[in-house]
Amino acid sequence: ITMGQLDGKVALVTGSAHSIGKAIAIGLARQGASLVLADKDVPAMKLTEKTIAELGVQVEAVPTDVTEEKQIEALFVKAIERFGRLDILVNNAGLFYSAPIDEMTTEGWDKLIATSLRGAFLCTRAAFRIMKKQGGGRIVNIGSISALRVRDRNAAYNTAKAGLVGLTHSTAL
Fold first, then answer.
1. Is the overall model pTM greater than 0.85, yes or no?
2. Is there a contact between 158 and 103 (Cβ–Cβ < 8 Å)?
3. Does residue 157 carry a catalytic annotation?
4. What is the DSSP letter of 99?
5. Pick the catalytic residue: 157, 158, 159, 167?
């Protein structure tokens, strides 16, 4: 492995089994960061873990449902047990649910908000506590243009992403 900008750093990426999260995790690994992967799709996450291990960096895959507070707590304990520190958190886990507001189910709304917004809060809180003791770190929330330019049939998603903007600003303070 070549020397990277993130050698010696530890990053945790939620929603790292697929798509954007997978690409972010691999990109961080290519820059030398050790990785903690978090996703509830264990088989797909294991494939991401294999790809990252082949890059020659340390990686730990932790099955995690970000809507479950106890699983989040266990995730961050595992990260510290394995690597002793956490430098970067990428809150990427999310889902999409589309329906007109008058047809949207409470269950659909709650599941999306719990995954995309509450999960980001729980992970941010856990990471913030670690990073505060370390004297620093970076928390990156994966947002969407939908936070500012809402789309029809996407009230829950629009709301979650707008809330994520608020969480990001509040955390920065």
1. yes
2. no
3. yes
4. B
5. 157
Give the residue among 84, 107, 94, 111 at the shortest CA–CA distance from 38.
Answer: 94
Instruction: Give tens-digit pLDDT for 24-77.
Output: 999 999 999 999 999 999 999 999 999 999 999 999 999 999 999 999 999 999
Contacts of residue 75, Cβ cutoff 8 Å, sequence gap at least 6: 12, 36, 38, 62, 64, 123, 126
Q: CA 67, 23, 25, 124 torsion: positive or negative?
A: negative
Structure confidence by residue, pLDDT tens digits, 103-139: 999 999 999 999 999 999 999 999 999 999 999 999 9
Contacts for 156 with CB less than 8 Å, ≥ 6 apart: 97, 104, 108, 109, 112, 113
Please list, residue by residue across 42-74, b when 16 or more beta carbons sit within 10 angstroms of its beta carbon and e when fewer do. Answer: eeebeebbeebeeeebebbbbbbbbbeeebbee
- Beta bridge partners, 94, equal none
In 3D space, the residue among 157, 133, 129, 153 whose CA is nearest the CA of residue 143 turns out to be 157
Residue type, 101: I
Check if the beta carbon of residue 16 is closer than 8 Å to that of residue 24.
Answer: yes
According to DSSP, residue 116 is labeled I
